[in-house]
Specification:
- By secondary structure, the chain is an alpha+beta fold.
- The protein folds into 2 domains: 92 residues, Nucleic acid-binding proteins (OB fold (Dihydrolipoamide Acetyltransferase, E2P), Beta Barrel), CATH 2.40.50.140; 301 residues, Bira Bifunctional Protein, Domain 2 (BirA Bifunctional Protein, domain 2), CATH 3.30.930.
- The chain is built from 13 helices and 16 strands.
- The strands form 3 sheets. It has an 8-stranded mixed sheet with strand order 6-10-11-16-15-14-13-12, sandwiched between helices. The protein has a 5-stranded mixed β-barrel with strand order 1-2-3-5-4.
- A hairpin with a 3-residue loop joins β1 and β2.
- α4 crosses α6 and α4 crosses α13.
- The protein is elongated and about 85 Å long.
- It binds one RNA strand through β1, β2, β3, α2 and β15.
RNA sequence: UCCUCAGUAGCUCAAUGGUAGAGCAUUCGGCUGUUAACCGAAGGGUUGUAGGUUCGAGUCCUACCUGAGGAGCCA
């Protein structure tokens, strides 16, 4: 009979509430410090880390030896009494009374990720184990909070979730390279790069909608800001103008950052994020036009000319002295997708907006107002060398009760990388898919 | 796709063209309050691959492979 069988099982996050009580905790050995007659196993269980104390004189010899001989990441269930302790990290520790070793990691194959430094190649090869580290744990918790906040924001602001297809015929926008997939006999489909076109149809049915799912880009981008598979949330609103889109994007970013500050402060501290910088993320965000951005870039020494898209260094220059995200709108038609509504006062620019995160994190949001006039849309399709017959259903939306409408897409990984203050988006998702990495 | 850099013990890194080393990890021994614990000892290597230069190559040259950073493209 296990003497601790009747003891309540708790998580480390709840430990403080059980001070003075005997409990059981199931987890993994994070680290073990030991001397001849006392040992300090650190246990993690996914909710936190707690230090246990095993004293030789207080335990059966068999139990003490089992603890002393534990290896890193062995799965164990411990029981003992929770006690406040100044010397323990976190302020609480468990006086160990009994231990059940679920699996002892054999020393012939010790846990590869030691408490010392590792290179990125090694860590990425061991991503399935790396997730157990304190830092990766914190990032995934923040990611979850960001996603939860996004859904809360839209759900409580009158939006309906309408999932859009992953398999799509041909190009959505005709710009980026897509992943091609065999679809039964003789047919090719492509992995989605955006749900926007479908969202436009859904918005005409439900008013305000959003889709939230994975997005695929077959671009051979090899930078700290790119994944081949990433998550994007895309709201779309009927009867909306560029101004409405900008206000929505601003409100979303403020809300998401606020939620992370409210619920994930501890994780931000693990990540050593400068929290003061996040606390400054309040409306209103600075708003400039593309033309003003070009003037600023030129005044700061950039070679850029009107009509060109921003490079990464341009984005950095624009945001380097910004404390809040920067909104840039009214881009030349030539550098944006076919569906952007032209500015009625300046037809050479379109009503698109990009939101650039501070601290050099680049574009986290892109969107704008869509063309609602049928003839203009057909004209733009032709100008972009896209076959109008491939967009028959999309053009229908302009035949049956067309209205001004718009929306945007926000990249979750870039957003999480910015909020967490990470060097690279590859750490913001459980198992990143990149140009030269699809395992594990 | 292009440019740059790197590849040495399980991991992180040293080594003037001249006997391949250290810390961590692992094993053994010591230690009753440790904080990436500490102290002592041991085992652990076809220096990414294939050629070449040289009396002699981890080091120099060529090609290739793998990875990283950046550019372009994009969220």
């Amino acid at each position: 009979m296990n003497p601790s069988a009747g003891v309540p099982r708790i998580t480390i996050a709840e430990a403080e509430r059980y001070t003075g009580q005997s409990v059981r905790i199931a987890g993994w050995l994070y680290n073990l410090r030991k001397s001849g007659k006392i040992a300090f196993p650190l246990l993690r269980d996914g909710t936190g880390i707690i230090q246990c104390v095993a004293v030789k004189s207080a335990l059966p010899e068999e139990t003490f030896n089992a603890i002393r001989n534990l290896t890193q990441e062995s799965s164990i269930i411990v029981s003992g009494k929770i006690r406040a302790e100044q010397r323990a990290p976190g302020g609480f520790e468990m006086d160990l009374e009994d231990i059940e070793v679920v699996q002892r990691v054999p020393e012939e194959h010790p846990y590869p990720i030691t408490p010392k430094e590792h290179g990125i190649e090694f860590l990425m090869d061991h991503r399935h184990l790396w997730l157990r580290s304190r830092r990766q744990h914190a990032i995934l918790k923040v990611r979850h909070e960001v996603i939860k906040a996004i859904r809360n924001f839209f759900d409580s602001n009158g939006f309906t979730l309408v999932d859009t297809p992953i398999f799509t015929p041909a190009a959505c926008e005709g710009t980026t390279t897509l992943f091609e997939v065999d679809y039964f006999e003789d047919e090719k489909v492509y992995l989605t790069q955006s749900g926007q076109l479908y969202n436009e149809a859904a918005a005409m049915a439900l008013g305000k909608v959003y889709c939230f799912g994975p997005t695929f880009r077959a671009e051979k981008s090899k930078t700290r800001r790119h994944l081949t598979e990433f998550w994007m949330v895309e709201p779309e609103m009927a009867y909306a103008t560029l101004e409405d889109v900008k206000n929505l994007a601003e409100a979303l970013v403020v809300f998401v950052v606020g939620r992370v500050l409210e619920n994930r402060r501890q994780e931000l501290e693990v990540l050593e994020r400068d929290i003061a910088k996040l606390e400054r993320i309040q409306a209103p965000f600075p708003r400039i036009s593309y033309g003003q951005a070009i003037d600023i870039l030129k005044s700061k020494g950039s070679e850029i000319e009107w009509g060109a898209d921003f490079g990464n260094t341009d984005e950095t220059i624009l945001t380097e002295d910004q404390q809040r995200p920067l909104m840039v709108d009214r881009f030349p038609a030539g550098i944006k997708a076919f569906y952007f509504e032209p500015d009625s006062e300046h037809p050479e620019v379109v009503l698109g907006v990009d939101v650039l995160a501070p601290e050099g994190y680049g574009e986290i949001i892109g969107g704008g107002q869509r063309i609602h006039n049928l003839d203009l849309l057909v004209e733009r399709l032709k100008a972009h060398n896209l076959p109008p017959e491939a967009f028959d259903w999309y053009l229908d939306l302009r035949r049956y009760g067309t209205v001004p409408h718009g929306g945007f897409g926000m990249g979750v990984e870039r957003c999480v990388a910015w909020i967490c203050g990470l060097e690279h988006v590859r750490e913001t998702i459980g198992f990143p898919r990149m140009l030269y990495r699809t395992r594990p």
